Amino acid sequence: MRPRRKRRGVQVEGNNSDIEIEVLTPAIGAVVHGVDLSRPMSEDRFAAIEQAFLDHQVIFLHDQNLTKEDLKRFGRRFGSLNVHPFLPKVDDDPEVILLRNDRERPPAVNVWHSDLTYLPKPPLGAVLLAREIPDSGGDTLWASMTAAYEGLSGEMQDRLSGLTGVHRGSLAEYRAALGENVELDPNSEWADPNPTAEHPLIRTHPVTGRKSLYVSSTDTRSIKGLEPEESAALLDQLFRHAETPEFQVRFRWRVGDVAVWDNRCTQHYATADYWPKRRTMHRVTVEGDRPY
Q1: How many CB atoms within 10 Å of residue 117?
Q2: Using one digit for the tens of pLDDT, what is the confidence trace for 103-131?
Q3: pLDDT tens-digit profile of 204-224?
Q4: By the 8 A CB rule, do 286 and 126 touch?
Q5: For the chain, percent helix, then strand, then coil, each to nearest 5?
Q6: Which is it for strands 58-61 and 30-33: parallel, antiparallel or unpaired?
Q7: Would you call the peptide bond into 291 cis, given omega within 30 degrees of 0 as the criterion?
Q8: Residue 181: is its pLDDT beyond 90?
Q9: What is the C-alpha to C-alpha distance for residues 228 and 25, in angstroms, rounded to an integer?
Q10: What is the CB neighbour count within 10 angstroms for residue 69?
Q11: Cβ distance 171 to 184 under 8 Å?
Q12: Which of 279, 289, 241 is nearest to 257 (CA)?
């Protein structure tokens, strides 16, 4: 068990008074205490967790003893689960991704990004469970793109309003980096080896109504309607701005920790400082909607 420490947070009122929200930074991140995800959960109780998720954009729950089915059941409270085309799966379950890094499989996501922005409907978010953690290192950072938008000057906000980013993936590059080599279903949304989608640079959250910067250094390739040099310079400026420490929270994992993040308004970065030690995570991804 974790040692107890002083919490900076609030109690949830009503029938969920045993739930406590510990705020980690002003911009992003909170720990939800008093919840066992392996137990049945009422709608009212889930609503308190979902509100923390919306308020803080990434939430963490400690000391969770979950089966694969528990993880899926909790993920489905947020929406339908996504099936990734080539990442390895836990027990061949198409909905549960196995993220395993060791000497033979070096980490490859130590870059700031938002997941799958090259799809017409990028994921709503994801639930990540720590199974094996190195004795040091392997932290994950999240950044609030709402805070990033609010940190822009009014002039820059006006400049970006109405502009569209062109997002393009390279599945061959991703598979090579991750050490996976499988054939893709030619009838699926993944059939295109270089999938492309267009999304607004300023995204409005469909639930909270808050605006956020919507770019990803891995996949936002250009800005529609701008000359290539102007597009590249502006995107580089936005990528660097999104990395501002005041927009971030850093989470140190322990076995049994769960993270739930809102992919619509965050970026994340998985540090690779632990390699070649082993790190194993299980993940479910929640389907999303078209950004606007």
Answers
A1: 23
A2: 999 998 899 999 999 999 999 999 999 99
A3: 999 999 999 999 999 999 999
A4: yes
A5: 25, 25, 50
A6: parallel
A7: no
A8: no
A9: 37
A10: 11
A11: yes
A12: 279
Task: Identify which has the larger pLDDT, 62 or 8.
Answer: 62
Cis peptide before 88 (omega within 30 of 0): no
Q: Which two tokens stand for residue 119?
A: 């799809």
Residues with active-site annotation: 113, 115, 268, 283
User: What DSSP state is assigned to residue 288?
Assistant: -
Residue 1 pLDDT: 45
Let me know if 119 is exposed, middle or buried by CB neighbors in 10 A (0-12, 13-18, 19+). buried
Q: What is the largest CA-CA distance in the chain?
A: 56
Unique residue bearing structure tokens 């990434």? 58
Q: Does 6 score more than 50 pLDDT?
A: no
- Tell me if 266 sits within 8 A of 57, measured CB to CB: yes
Q: What is the tally of helices (H) and strands (E) in the chain?
A: 6, 16
Amino acid (one-letter) located at 283:
R
Residue-level length of the chain: 292
Ordered alpha helix ranges (H), the chain: 43-56, 68-76, 145-150, 154-160, 171-178, 228-242
CB atoms within 10 A of CB 266: 25
